[in-house]
Amino acid sequence: MKTAQGIAQRLLLPALLAAGFATSQAVFAADLDLAPSELAGSRHTSASQPGAALAVVDQRGSELLAEIAQRGSDLEAYILQSGYANTASVDQLGHGNSAWVSQAGSFNNAEIDQFGSDNTAHVSQRGNGNQAQIEQFGSGHGASVDQRGSGLTVMVRQYR
Description:
Curli production assembly protein CsgB; Curlin_rpt; signal
């Protein structure tokens, strides 16, 4: 699979960039074992997801970092970023999990880790220097974080 991944990175990513993805990046992958990484400019995206999964990344700004790792089936992850130096990561293992991160501002950090089934997590950050982390282990959990302002920190942990 590494050969296919290398070919995809050398051929597919330049074609996407030439098609107008220089100001906004999106990664759509379902039933693929492709891991695009480090698109041009100061916005960096990576996705790793064997199995049936959907990953969407939309970045508008500079020095943005988005990482999605999904292992399992019926998984969805969305990262929407605008501004400067925001970072977001989603790590999901299991079945039926969904994660969503939306960031606007500067120096925000969001991390979602979900291991189990049918978990849902949302993080919305508006402002500067906010930190949010959601960890869910087990099944049927839901968490939502909405940060509006600057210098806010929250951690949500659910185990079962």
